[in-house]
Amino acid sequence: GPKTLPIEPAFRYTPDGYREDRERHERDSDIHPLTSGLVGMLMALYTSLNERRREIAILRAVGVGPLKIMFLLVAESGLLSLAGSLAGIGLVYSLVLVLQPLVEQQFGLYLPIKPLSATEHLYVVAVVLAGLVLGFIPAWKAYRNALSDGLSVRI
Q: Helices then strands (H, E): number in the chain?
């Protein structure tokens, strides 16, 4: 006869009597890696800001306004988010393409190559927007730094 697949319930009750939502756990498992990646990017940008203090001070000295420097740092953050998202998508599709025959042969599982869903497109847009928003934190610090701060010689 035809093969049937088991139907998973939308929620279960734990032994403690709490309702356990499968969708919430799936959504959380998507959000946590994204959040940790964005926090990592924020920390990298914030730390690199200290290294680039002199570069920013030179830009300010030659007439680049603080708002333009803010824009440059926020744009850098957004471009990093976009590049990371595109690289991640490319890597996933490349791995599926390469490993598809092997997984099917070894385990009998077919890995379909499908275009991104509307939800996945939304995740990419959300990641890029979050990267832009997080870029304002180091940009604000650079905006507040005094011009003389980066030009002074430290011994």
A: 5, 2
In terms of Cβ atoms closer than 10 Å to its own Cβ (0-12, 13-18, 19+), residue 118 is exposed
Distance from chain centroid for Cα 143:
24
Query: What percent of the chain has a predicted confidence (pLDDT) above 70?
Result: 75
CA 94 to CA 99: how far, in whole Å?
Answer: 8
Q: Per 3-state DSSP, what percentage of the chain is helix, strand, and coil (rounded to 5)?
A: 75, 5, 25
Is 0.90 topped by the overall pTM?
Answer: no
* Other Cβ atoms closer than 10 A to 131: 25
Confidence tier at 49 by pLDDT (50, 70, 90): confident
Residue 63, burial from CB neighbour count under 10 angstroms (0-12, 13-18, 19+): exposed
